[in-house]
Amino acid sequence: xxxxxxxxxxxxxxxxxxxxxxxxxxxxxxxxxxxxxxxxxxxxxxxxxxxxxxxxxxxxxxxxxxxxxxxxxxxxxxxxxxxxxxxxxxxxxxxxxxxxxxxxxxxxxxxxxxxxxxxxxxxxxxxxxxxxxxxxxxxxxxxxxxxxxxxxxxxxxxxxxxxxxxxxxxxxxxxxxxxxxxxxxxxxxxxxxxxxxxxxxxxxxxxxxxxxxxxxxxxxxxxxxxxxxxxxxxxxxxxxxxxxx
Length: 245
What we know:
Elements: E1 20-22, E2 29-31, H1 46-51, H2 54-57, E3 64-66, H3 68-76, H4 94-97, E4 109-117, E5 139-141, E6 146-150, E7 158-163, H5 167-174, E8 185-189, E9 192-193, H6 196-205, E10 209-217
Antiparallel strand pairs: 1-2, 3-4, 4-10, 5-6, 6-7, 7-8, 8-9, 8-10
């Protein structure tokens, strides 16, 4: 019987403080950029990120996944005035230009990650939680206190309809730059993508920690928000801040 074909180096379970990571194509070691200076964004290819299983390593980081075109909009911003050919273009201060506030000004889509623990849930006091989702077609996730509407789009299986007083609201108050909003899409739970039902099952079956990936679409023609949405942070103004990707 013929031997199975070599499928390349096996994934490397890395830690954020490892001196070296593995290249997905050759398996060779390369210096871990996460240990370099944080004066500017950390950039690596998607293949390098996934091969070293950095979703697990960066569980305590606030992470944003954006494509290069959108990232350029954030870093370059407005085009500088015309520069004579014999003069070099001014250097771009990446830390300043890649401010988080630009995420709310650009068109395009990006994914961001939140991490919550069910053990930190505190039942709200002084008022009654709504007994059912505001939208009859939506599903309500206990403790997260978020209503999710299943979508036919396999890449956007669950849309956030409403955020109540629960773990997601607690996250929003503590992490305003990465606040979940009505109209965002839940796309991944604990590093696993799937259809709407599999994501719901993963949310309900997790014993404690939940690392959830949401997708925000800034092109409003491609993201229709439900008439049931009552997002309290939809008009939040982003403040200056640095960005690590």
